[in-house]
Design goal:
By secondary structure, the chain is an alpha+beta fold. It contains 9 helices and 5 strands; from the N terminus they run ααααααβαββααββ. About 15% of the residues are buried.
């Protein structure tokens, strides 16, 4: 079984951890955003500087080319130009060349820095976007945990009830198997053994006292008829064929008529609405509910009269069962774990499986009424 208090504590700790994570993600987003703005500003400055360097390189390239041409010109004509002219041309060309190489290297460094800043900017932008998305997702999770799981304890209780219901259904099935096995053993099985003995006895009578065989065969016939009645009763209890053949209302009417004839118990039956077939599971469940309620009246209520009324509407079926018996204290009976709650627990579980509603009204000395409403669909 779940420890609900421990689970609540775990949920609270989880919410606190997620809230702290949200704060940390928010800090990351803020720091990344600040760094992104700084990188943007630095990138703009570098791009501006690169543009300026490119212009200087272009101008210096032209000047350096002219200086080399001048150097070539003075170097070829020694008659027109003096050694000083040649040296000046050489120094000028060399100076421009060195300056051009220096600017080109600086341009390369600035371009590399620009590319690195652009890569960093893209990564920071992606980080900020992911952080903002995570903040939004964490907010949704927190809202869900804070809101949607507030009733988790009640849901776990419902789960426990469903587990108990499943276990009680299994227990009821096993009890039903034991009951059927006991009825077969005490009824038809004993009768079959008796029939075999009677048949052997008839064979012996046929040789010794033929005149007594007819009388013994009549008794044997009565025994077979009685066994057949018991078997049909067991089959009807397991699954009334009329329920499959004709539907719920005729099956209930047949069951109540046989019950009245067998036990001399006065039960009135009323059906309101247009008869139609329902889902097989619904028909069987409602039939078993009525069967259990009638058995409870006979076993516990000490009633003289009872009424079973069924009303079939387009979207639901209502079953009303009332007796004039001694009644009981509902809260006390349902709280007593040592007893089966007069069968009401089984009835309630079947109603819950059908997603219906159960209402029991009873007062000691004033009888009991049970009202069941279940949704139905046309079959």
């Amino acid at each position: 079984m779940f420890d609900i208090n421990a689970l609540d504590r775990i949920i609270k700790e989880t919410i606190e951890t997620i809230e702290q994570s949200k704060i940390q993600i928010y800090d990351i987003a803020e720091n990344s955003s600040l760094e992104m703005n700084r990188v943007k500003q630095e990138l703009a400055e570098v791009k501006s500087e690169v543009a300026g360097i490119i212009k200087q390189v272009d101008r210096l390239t032209v000047s350096e080319k002219k200086a080399r041409l001048r150097l070539i010109e003075v170097s070829k004509d020694f008659h027109r130009y003096t050694e000083k002219d040649i040296k000046d041309a050489y120094d000028n060309a060399y100076t421009l060349q060195v300056e051009l190489i220096t600017l080109q290297e600086r341009e390369k460094l600035l371009r590399y820095r620009r590319d690195h800043l652009e890569t960093s900017l893209r990564r920071l932008q992606a980080t900020v976007q992911r952080a903002e998305k995570l903040i939004s997702q964490v907010g949704v999770v927190l809202n869900y945990l804070a809101g949607g799981l507030q009733d988790l304890s009640s849901k776990i209780d419902e789960f426990h009830e469903a587990q108990k219901m499943a276990l009680s259904i299994i227990t009821a099935q096993e009890d039903e198997r034991k009951r059927v096995a006991r009825e077969i053993h005490d009824g038809p099985a004993q009768s079959m053994a008796n029939i075999v003995m009677r048949a052997d006895y008839c064979q012996k009578l046929l040789d010794l006292h033929p005149e007594k065989v007819r009388e013994e065969l009549v008794a044997l016939q009565d025994l077979v008829r009685l066994s057949l009645t018991d078997i049909r009763k067991i089959i009807f209890d397991l699954r009334p064929m009329v329920l499959d053949d004709l539907g719920l209302a005729p099956a209930v009417k047949r069951y109540l008529t046989d019950y009245k004839d067998q036990y001399g118990f006065q039960i009135e039956f009323f059906f309101i609405g247009r008869q139609r077939r329902l889902d097989t599971t619904t028909e069987v469940a409602i039939f078993r509910i009525i069967q259990e309620a009638v058995n409870n009246i006979k076993k516990h209520a000490k009633a003289k009269n009872a009424v079973v009324k069924m009303e079939l509407l387009p979207q639901k079926m209502t079953v009303y069962i009332k007796d004039d018996g001694i009644g009981f204290d509902l809260d006390k009976i349902m709280a007593d774990k040592a007893r089966d709650g007069y069968g009401l627990i089984g009835i309630r579980e079947r109603v819950q499986l059908l997603k219906g509603e159960l209402n029991v009204v009873t007062v000691p000395g004033r009888g009991t009424s049970i009202c069941i409403s279940v949704p139905v669909e046309n079959y």
